[in-house]
Amino acid sequence: MKLNNWLHAWSQGQLRNGRLKIQNSNGRQQWSLYFHLGHLIGDAGGVHPRRRWLRQLAQYCPQIQVDPIHLYQEQKYRGDDYEFLAALMSKREILRQQMVSVVQGSVAEVLFDILQQEQWLRDRSLPPLSYTFTPEEKLYTSPLVFLSPDRSWQQAKQAWQKWCQAGLEEFSPNVAPLIWQREELQQQSSPVVYRSLVSMVDGKRTLRDLALRLRQDPILLTQSLLPYIRRGWMKSIEVGDIGEKLEHVVTRGFQSSPAQPKTTSPLIAYIDDSPRDSQLLGRILTQAGYRYISLQDSVLALPMLLEHKPSLIFLDLVMPIANGYEICAQIRRTSVLKDTPAIILTSNDGIIDRVRAKVVRSTEFISKPIEAPKILNVVRKYLEFGDRNTRQTDEKPTMEYGID
Question: Does this model's pTM top 0.90?
């Protein structure tokens, strides 16, 4: 059962008190959601539970000054959060609505991270998250915050959709940007921009931390840093939670962001009007070290192919105005591209589609969904020694369709 179904079951009163534990197959990512009388009352776990909680506290209870290090020393995390908030409320140092906002904000981040992890696993055909319900397990002896599971889910889903629509699907808000090539950044940026970046990007604050500090929308903040990331002037690192140190600090792009391919690596083009499939294929190829170009406008595909001269071309079949068959036929009529491997990659996997693909002389025909092993196998088959264009051979593309 998926998370939305679990939450809906609570909203419908089918489940009452207890804890829902969510984890991936290797147990490295774990979250817990706590429920009382059908309401969502809190969360635990995740990448940075302390950072998450303190962010909410700083945002919704700014009058409360907390020493994050000493707060957690020799204390069991999470139950004390609620006790701490409840104590503040009983002393009238915070209002009840402030406590609600803190819990609500923490739950929203947890649900967002679960959604992103689900998508990440799905895209890579990895085992999905598992859900374990433990009845009667309590987070707090006397819950003070009651959230609607369905409403919390819808809000998190909307936030995740906005993140995806902004093209940030692969980027985790839990990584910390770090200036990597300071001299290049200084040379290419105005003095004002450079000073601003140096002052805020220190590899210690996550994107979520920075967004709160700068009072900026996390989406806009991340988008503003992307150009620096893509040029290699800035990278991001995984950082530990407050009071913790990572055994291995991994320097990389944002979550799942591929390493920059070498400029001499083969260029692979993909013609598909689906942004999602284009992003997925791009990630698979760039992570494998290939350069990648996405062509989502089928009308402009041929001029772009002539300009970039890719070593291999993937083609979707169903596109507006010009479909994959028409584009493949154009490719074969073009002297510069006529020998370039052109792979049909489509959900239309019928015998007629395979025959038509053969008629227009596509090199191979593979069916969606897009899966890394399948994609890389076919790429390595035709780009075995790197860039096909560098081969000193007159061999023609092999024709394989799965039909006689």
Answer: no
